[in-house]
Amino acid sequence: MSDRITIETLGQKGDGIAHEGGAAIFVPFTLPGETVTVSRDGARARLLSVETPSPERVPAPCPHFGVCGGCELQHMSEDAYRSFKRGTVTEAFRRAGLDAQVADLVPCAPASRRRAVFSALRIDNRVLFGFHEALSHRIVSIHTCLVVVPEIATRLAFLEKLAVALIDRKRELRMVVTHTAAGLDIAVSDAAKVDGRLRQRVLELALAPGIARLSVDGETIVEPQAPRLDVDGLGVSLPPGAFLQAVAQAERAMAEVALAHLAKAKRVADLFCGVGTFTLRLARRQAVHGVEFDTPALAALDAAHRGVPGLKPITTERRDLYRRPLTTRDLSRFDGVLFDPPRAGAEAQCRELARSTVKRVAAVSCNPTTLARDAAILVEGGYKLLSVTPIDQFLWSHHVEAVALFER
Length: 408
Hints:
Number of strands: 22
Strand content: 25-35%
Shape: flat
């Protein structure tokens, strides 16, 4: 049975929202003002047709749009898209009680994402390889992707062949593919046991041109070249499956905003520092203390800066900042702090910062809601929120990165 409804606004995840009998109905791939026909399933609905399209509706460029869950907003005009993403950040801060000066969205180009996570699942005698549908465990087989860099997009058939060889009969396989200066770094998890004939088959596949490393469930199977990233002209070896910013241009934009704010600081703490995306850049000017829980990431940072002339001193510390945030006493050594936590944010660390004497803080986040929560803690502790810069690192999705700057 179908219903005819009118979309009133967009939700935080980009779904169109209508109301019927006081209850909200969420409809993906719709825009405000549109009259649409939908199939209802509780509060969620599936779009069947658009009867009255919005002037902001445009043809989606990807043939998988509407099925693949990777992109949700390809049907929006460029102006509407940018306004929505900036508005997501503005609204998050408004809800946290903050009147933030939110800059224009820093754009993201297609074919720029250097990291992608694929899934594969055996169904009877066939294997599905691709991305999940939106809000579903079902996998959509894909033959193209307009978001990832060409080095990944042109190897989809090869990656699928590798997934078919490695897939376990009962588990969903996960494949993280990263484009590096040395070639593709492929980290597979939840695979079949690699021994005997399978190991030989996988070795033959992975020795193809353009493959830097293949690791399976933490074991490096083959590494013709060590995967390396360029961080501000410095080479960083990438541990298997290590976190890095998805788009290199977005990483540079974040760094430019944060480092300009911290330029006058003499000693900076880089919290949740990973492999040193910001640490190494900061060390061009300041002594830096990098704090991270992931041991391989810290080892990569240590190796990257060792012996490089001209860098200021870098020290590192392995520490779980969720359980043991730097205390006000720890923070007294620094006049600048940068933090870039996972989506959960840095609430415990911000409570310590709010009681500290640190002069300048730069916060980087992929979650505007937790960033705004953390910002409110800092403001309550005496910091002034200077600006928030939204950065589009997740093209055509509702996700948005942001950099917030604070001064005591």
